[in-house]
Amino acid sequence: QVDVAAMARLFGYVDVTDTGFIVAVLSIAFNPLFWNVVARWEHKTRVFSRVFGSAHAACYCLGAVILLLNCVRSHCFTEAMKSQPKLEGWDCHWTYYSGLAISAVGTLFVISSFLALGFTGTFLGDYFGILMEAKVTSFPFSVLDNPMYWGSTAVYLGWSLM
Questions:
Q1: Distances in Å between the alpha carbon of 136 and those of 30, 39, 99, 114, 123?
Q2: CA distances (Å), 81 to each of 13, 24, 35, 106, in order?
Q3: Contact 18, 25 (CB under 8 A)
Q4: Which of 17, 90, 137, 155 has a Cα at 20 to 30 A from 131?
């Protein structure tokens, strides 16, 4: 038997009916769905490479759209966090600085991943036929298998704590 009392108490602090919360959840779910559908469609049809005249131009355009969608997602997330109830006892300096530290580590993983992969490596260039010469194994890939995902998760966790 599972005791769900702690989980029920935790969900008492989340207002799932809040419009900002719903929009944030939808934007969080939409982003990876969108870029994976677009990238797979490009991989099968090469339609964007033809429209933009080259695979690189198409990849850069998709990357720009992904960055724009990430800005929208971050804004929605921030607005949702502002409207949610706060956990009692967690609104203190210790929580804020812990969140700041977690966000800093996450940012380190995201930025170092981007620098290791480059723009086309980060933004699905392989679906456009833009392949790297070798698998990237330097930091942060020497520490984590998916440093950009883990880093992004850490950024949002830290942001939530802050």
A1: 28, 21, 29, 11, 15
A2: 11, 9, 25, 19
A3: no
A4: 155
The pLDDT tens digits for 32-80 are 999 999 999 999 999 999 999 999 999 999 999 999 999 999 999 999 9
- Helical pair 147-161 and 55-83, crossing angle rounded to 10 deg: 20
CA distance 90 to 96: 9
The tokens describing 37, both together, are 């559908």
Using alpha carbons, list the distances in angstroms from residue 138 to 12, 141, 144, 147, 148: 43, 6, 10, 11, 14
Q: Which residue has the tokens 């880093």?
A: 151
CA distance 108 to 102: 10
